[in-house]
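pinned: reference chain
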Amino acid sequence: MIRTKDFYLKKIYNLEGKRIGVVKDIYINFYEKKLEGFEVSNTAFFSKKNYIDIDDIIDIGEDIVAKDLKSGNGLKFKDIKDLDVMDTQGRLKGAVEDLLIDRNNYTIKAIIVTSGFIDKILKGKEIFLLNECILGEDYVLYTGKENISFKSIPHNVNEYEFIKKI
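pinned: its structure tokens
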């Protein structure tokens, strides 16, 4: 699994080896649960071509090799980053911080939610599966069960014990 922050500022080259730019943001399809492409911080000024489709990418390693640039529009990750996540009872779960993406087929598996800096240190981050989330205009609705949760816990936090909710 990889996260969206693993893509930011990766250099993008075309097939001839010329540097196109760097990754500025990622385009996602929340409903189909997949990565659509990348927004490119283009080296050519005033260029409307600032998008690389995921199908046009040859290789993603330390750098990205792609065929060509296009004009792109759609939902960017920055549009949903820091969006509130609420459960079905109206309780605030936190804010969207990152996405977990499958490295093999670039499908989005989960969202990482944090409820603040102090809670991130003490309790870790919560991970919600994407098929249990509904994207709205003002917030993300989490429809999953309360007694089943995934967490990303900071290293060396041994004093904190997790209590199973019944």
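why pinned: Helices lie at 77-80, 117-122. The first strand starts at residue 2 and ends at 3.
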